[in-house]
Each structure stands twice: as structure tokens, then as C-alpha cells.
Amino acid sequence: MTQPLPLLERAAAVIPNGMYGHQNVVLLPEGMPQFFDRAEGATLWDDQGRSYLDYMCGYGPNLFGYGHKEIDDAYVARMRAGDTMTGPAPVMVELAEAMTAQVSHADWAMFCKNGTDATTMAMMIARRHTGRKTIVLAAGAYHGAAPWCTPLKGGTTPEDRANQIHYIYNDAESLEEAVRKAGSDLAAIFASPIKHDTFVDQELPDPEYARRARELCDEHGALLIVDDVRAGFRIARDCSWASVGVQPDLSSWGKAIANGHPISALLGADKARMAAATIYVTGSYWFSAAPMAAAITTLRLIRETDYLERTIALGDRLRAGLDAVATRHGFGLRQTGPSQLPLIMFHEDEGFGTGYAFCSGLLQRGVYFHPWHNMFISNAMTEADIDLTLQAADDTLRDVRAGPKPGPVEKLQILAQLAAE
Amino acid sequence: MTQPLPLLERAAAVIPNGMYGHQNVVLLPEGMPQFFDRAEGATLWDDQGRSYLDYMCGYGPNLFGYGHKEIDDAYVARMRAGDTMTGPAPVMVELAEAMTAQVSHADWAMFCKNGTDATTMAMMIARRHTGRKTIVLAAGAYHGAAPWCTPLKGGTTPEDRANQIHYIYNDAESLEEAVRKAGSDLAAIFASPIKHDTFVDQELPDPEYARRARELCDEHGALLIVDDVRAGFRIARDCSWASVGVQPDLSSWGKAIANGHPISALLGADKARMAAATIYVTGSYWFSAAPMAAAITTLRLIRETDYLERTIALGDRLRAGLDAVATRHGFGLRQTGPSQLPLIMFHEDEGFGTGYAFCSGLLQRGVYFHPWHNMFISNAMTEADIDLTLQAADDTLRDVRAGPKPGPVEKLQILAQLAAE
């Protein structure tokens, strides 16, 4: 009798490289599971039945816990009544009303599927609004995976990135220099709400830089775009830049807005309404009703629960605890960004060896950490989960300290190669 | 006491133009409902509670009927177990195996959300595979709504459409001329499986043209891409060009593959696997498990039921019946394309006045037709539904014949203006 092939071999046969995109584990530490069978609250089970306390939250969507009954019930009820139809359901208007009521700069909403859809629409609307072409973006910032913005250039052309000028995040002077270079052709300034690039420390936005971005757009008649796909509703119950008192003209959303159900959104101010009304963008499932019903329930939980204060408190507890654990074992941690969006790396660990060893050790102890992408605290987590994590970190760092000093991670060179092309 | 605002006014306040994209009814005949509350089988109910026999099928996704219990149950069961997680579920591999088993040219699969995601990935993979930039496409064909392909150019730049050369669908000579122009830079030929452009008659593929496309790609080392997003599994239980004996290298899918649940796909031959493995494309919900479970059930129904023969027979019955009705009232119909993907227009109706009057009259009689976009027969329809439609058409055409001759539809000039920009 022949044995069934292992899942990874089957995947390698019918999916290029076995997997693609941000959920490909090829660049992650040894032992990170590629497939998960089940999810509940803050816990994932892989296809071998092993469970993990999950700090990635699906790379962002899980805000209120996997399988949240109230949100999922709203999805199912609307799906059973009618989901992808020949026109949208009234719930689309209700959701647009809820989003514009929630986000102070927003007068209108458009819904789509990918975060990339929303950032691409933002770019098109800015170009339509101004009649100009040049967009100014922070170097290294992630705004999606279409040819104009995907972080690796394979399969793209120089023309896909024509009309782009880069600046350094949080550096008002470099932003001014980029705007000067754009001259009379400035259509928009893109900004992430925080610097949440992979592989490097996160940075909170410097209020002076954020205000300067607003002023420069106003001076030049360009649009200010905040890409809140990843961090939206995790920093504020409003656009994340409400935290520094700056209102963009457009903001892109996704991930947490429906707790994992497939929907993204572009929100805009009245100023950009006419431009938004005269571009043609659409998708087969952009008008589907069920994810909109889930988003309305999620927004109600955002308004009515203390999820934000809770996730911040849990993140603070994790950060303080990890610092103490690391110090005890003689490691220096670089914990950056808002504590509810933690990025945790090690001092003097350019080759990520210690970070990978740390994640591998945590994984063996049932905790899923990421070595170079910001993580996410879910409202389904508890103080006991954090304490369990700290215990696992304590045990892991003791092992790492006792073992041979980890060398640089060779598989990251693959990425460096691809990025350099 | 103030009355609640009507839904359309509320929509106009919080959505640019009140609606956007292909489900915006602004260019459709008077009285076409913008919002639907409920869907079941082949029937839609608008937000006023009026019901319609729906020939648009959500613009394609509804193949086995709205609210198909078996498919939707598969979705819900997988959703409750875990949907958008930190990695895909094993069901992703099962679906890739099912799709590659079903579609004869396909050795691998990648899943995404929008049809546009799949066509964009196809373009990137062809460029990566060949190291060239030029893609050759049929003029007027719809391949999505990203800046490189959206049918209206507002918000796009000339650079977005650099490296594109157009040919005339079904015209082998014009295809050869386009390939000649591409010279040594030909990356891919795009082809719709049938000509299903809006506003003009549909055309089945001329086998000679399809074979020539294949030969030209082989001669030049370029990739042949069939965009089966709209027509996939409605013409064959394989890629639609299996019907003319031509195998593409890449094919894009969406719409019917999960009967309305949000998923699209790119399928490819081994030849293109390495290129597919070295582009970076992704999306927040591309790895979500629930739509994949729904797609697996849909694929089983595609294999095991006579849906294809049934929808063709129903389409044939509609086509023959409508011809007889039209002739009886002195109208000449242009019924083009496969009968299960009917496009129905009138002879001597350049201004679409008769077509709009026909659709309005059908709508009043509970039948939803589209005047200039191909329609879809769903397997949830019955012969009785077709006969009801023919009776409604008979009554409508008697009225149209008796009334004043309809003039050109002025609102279509808006579109002509936008398209010309």
C-alpha cells in the first residue's frame, strides 16, 4: 500500500514554490508550520494538531479573536439571505455610513477586497483629482503587491514605477526634498500611519513630519494618503493619524475592519469625491453583502468595547515582561512600535540568527512569534496568555544563551537576492 | 417626525456618485434597482420587495443558484473551523489539486481575490518568464480594472499602458501584425475565451485565430494567456479554449469557480512555474480557507452534474423562443455568443433605445435583463422560467411596437465622454 504524500510535497507539486506571498514560510525559522487546520480565539492548530498562541493574527485581520461568534453569525445570516448578487445590498450603505461616522476625515467610502485595491484606488483618485502623475512615498514602506508597489520587482517594468519619488519616513527634510523634485506634478504623498517596514525597527510618526506632510499637500493642491490597511483601528478608533492630530484626504483600510472576512475600503474627504466618482474600479466580489455585515458588527465592537485599551495593556505587559526576561539572560531587545503592534528584534543580531533561534524556541513551546514582521495583539488574548509567553521566552532565552551563538540566517540571502534584482 | 431618507439618497451621501463599478445602475434603463435584499436560486428581491428572475447571476458568479445549500454549508463549516489565519489550511492544496485535475493545460494554481489579480499576475509571470515587456491584447477586451487595464482611463497614466499593443479579436492577420510590432519584446498574447466585450455583438473564437495565437507564442517564446474569469466553466468543464483545441500557458479564473464566494485563480503550465515562483504577489485574504472549501464543492458539482448541458439547453430554448417572439412583433434580434452566455441586442438600434425599452418592460414584468452586457444562465433556472421570460418578452415587445419609437439613450453619452478622455 502506498502512503499518502505529505502535505508539503503535495503543495510543492501544484503550487509554485509550494506557497507564495506573505504566508509563505520559506523565509521563516525552521519548523514554522505552513498549514493550519483550525483557529479559535487567540489559538491556531497546525495540520499536525499542534496548537500555538498566535501573535500574527492572520497578519492583522484577527482583532477580536478567531471565530468570533457575533461577527461570524452576522456574516452567515447575511450570506444566507444573499451575498454576491447582481447589485449590492442595503448593508453597503449602512457600512459606508458607519465607516464615515467612525473615521473623522472621511465623508465617503468605497469597498473592495485587497488592501492593494484600496491603495491603488487612492493613487488613481489623487491623479484624477490633480491631473498630475507624481506620487511621493516613503522608501521601504509596504503599500501592496501590484506591479506599481510590490516589494520585489520580478515581473514588473520600470514604467510600472514611473512617476514615483521616495522620501525617508519621519524625515520632514527628505519629504520636502521629494516634493521639490516632484515640482508642479505632485499628485499625492503616501504615508504609513507608523513606520512598520519589515526587517527594521518600527517608528511612531513624528508629529512634525506628519503635520509637514499635511501642509505640503495643502500648499501644492495634492492629496495626503494614509495607508491604514495594516494598523487601522489598532492605534485609534479613528484613522491612526488622529493620534498626531493630522487628517488625511484619503485613507486605505482592510485587515481588522471585518475581523478576517474579506473586505477592504478606501475612505475619502469631500474634496476628493468628484475624482473618486470618475475613475473606473471594480471587482467581482466588491459588492458582496456578507463581509459588509461582518464589518458593521466589528465596527460596533470597536465603538462599544474596551478592545483598544485592553490590547494596549496586554502589549505593555508583554513588552515590559520581555525586557525583564531578556535582561535576566543578558540579551538586549529592540521592541519598537506601539506595544499592541509589537516588533521584537535583538541588538547585535544583523544576521537574525538570535531572532530565528528565539522564534523557533517559542514555537516549540506553543507560541507563534515572527522574527522580522510586526506582530499583533488580539482582544481574545488574556493576561494569562502573556504570562505563558513570558515563561516560554524565559525558557527559550536560557537555551539560546547556553547553546552555540546562532550565526546569520542563510535563507534570508534568497530574499536579498530577489530584492536586488 | 422626520422620515428616514430613501436608500438612494443615503447612498449618494456616503458613496461617490451613489455607486461605482460594474454594479452601478446609472447607465442602465430606468427603474433598474440599485440594491437587492435577498437572493435565492434564480430569483432576486430588491430593497422594495419586488422579485426578479435574474439573468445577470451577479455578473457571473451564480452558476448553481443563489444560496446553494451544499456549497454554502461547505463555506460555513470551513469558516467556523478557521478561515483567514496566519497560514493557509490544507484545503488550499486540495483545491489546487482539484483545479489542475479539472483544467487540462494546468500544472499549478495560485489563488487570489479579484479577476484583476489573476490577469495582473498572468502579465507579471509572462514578463518574468520571458524577460520582455510587451503584451498583445484584443482592443476592447475587458481584463480587469487596474490602472493597466481599466476600460476608462481617468486616474491612470500613459505609463500604466506602456508596452501594450492591440489586435482585433478573431482576426489572425491583425494578431500577426501586433506580434510583428512587438518584435523581440513579445512577452504574452492575451485572449478572452470568446469576444464578450460590452456594447457589441459577441463572437465565438475562430479556431484558426486561436491556433495562430498558440503558434505565434511558441515561435516567439512568449506565453499564451486565456482570460477565463467571466466564462470559465460555462463553456466547458475545462479551459474554454479546450472547445477549439488550443491549450494556453496561463488561464485566469474567478466568478463561477466558487458560486459567488470570494476567490479567483491563476492556473499555469509547468513552463511558467519558475516565473510564477519568483514574483511577489499577495493579499490579506488570498489564503482564506472558506472560499476554497466552497470552490471544492462547486468543482465537484461541475464534474458530477449535467449543469453544462442543462444551461446550454435552457439558453437554446430562450434564444429560439426570443427569435420567434421578436419576429412575431417585427423586431430583428442580434443574439450572439454561446446561448448560455446570451447577449441580446436589436437590429437597427445604434442608440440602444429599443434595447432599453425592452429591458424596462421585462423588469416591470419581473425579469432582469441587461441591454449591453452578456448575461448568464444559471443552473437554478427551469424551462418554466424560460417560458415565463418568453411570455414577458411577448408582452413587452407588443407594448414597444405599439408605443412611440424609442430614441437614443442619452445617458450612454456620459460613458462615451468618459471613455474618450
TrEMBL record, chains A, B:
Its cofactor is pyridoxal 5'-phosphate. It holds the Pfam family Aminotran_3. Signal peptide: none annotated. GO terms for molecular function: pyridoxal phosphate binding; transaminase activity. The keyword Iron does not apply. InterPro entries: Aminotrans_3 (IPR005814), Aminotrans_3_PPA_site (IPR049704), PyrdxlP-dep_Trfase (IPR015424), PyrdxlP-dep_Trfase_major (IPR015421), PyrdxlP-dep_Trfase_small (IPR015422). It comes from the Bacteria. Transmembrane segments: none annotated. PANTHER family: GLUTAMATE-1-SEMIALDEHYDE 2,1-AMINOMUTASE, GLUTAMATE-1-SEMIALDEHYDE 2,1-AMINOMUTASE 1, CHLOROPLASTIC-RELATED. This is Glutamate-1-semialdehyde 2,1-aminomutase. It comes from Sphingomonas endophytica.
